[in-house]
Amino acid sequence: MAAAVQDVIMLLGDSITQGGWEPGGFAQRLAHVYARKLDVINRGLSGYNTEWAIPVFEQCFAKQHEQQHVPTVRILTIWFGANDAAIKPSPQHVPLPDFISNLTHLVHMVTSSSSAHYSPKTSIILISPPPVNTYQRDADLQSRDPPKLLDRTFEVTRKYAEAVVEVGERMKIPVLDVWTALYDAAGRNERDLDKFLWDGLHLNAAGYEVMYEGLINTIKEKYPKLHYDELEPVFAPWAEIKWDDPTESLKARRTVREK
Known about the structure:
By secondary structure, the chain is an alpha/beta fold. Helices cover 37% and strands 10% of the residues. It has a single domain (2-250), classed as Rossmann fold.
């Protein structure tokens, strides 16, 4: 019932999005700063690529303007590429042109008026995959029983990150370039990415810190009306309740100011 009266932020992605609920993760921090204003729905799916994400998203994202008692997705983050960039023969691998097509399709599902999932009130942010620390990743895979071969490369992942930026520019959708943000924070040294990745692929608390700050800055710059400081709580603060006759003052209200 709470979700029916409170709009949401939806996080669509792979294990790096799923891990956003971990202590220090970005989803956990979003839920805190947007408390009583927007709920956070984490649809991070460990191991998924864009090919597998599309049919899942079709089920998760209702047609916003036709469904009753369905909250409006106000912010949608789409964070893929880490698995698409896996090298053959990995079943997660998605060729770069297909990755670009899939990412474009996910955006069109929300932004195209002819789409069954059209949602004009949803603001999208694309997020690039982080860089891979192949030294860490190789050590992690070699430590497994049985050992596994390195499944990702630094340069291939860079190309997928660049593709996300290009899709955002072409479709006029804001992009959070996590690849560049983390690589710059590591002094543009692949080995020093171990400060931000716990296994060469997934973000640790420090990595999520960089990502979270970038995400909040993107919202503030590109969608300022959706920044948590600009939103009203759905239910009135306790000091605004009319204590003698509280019913009217306790009705849910729209937290986002419509144009």
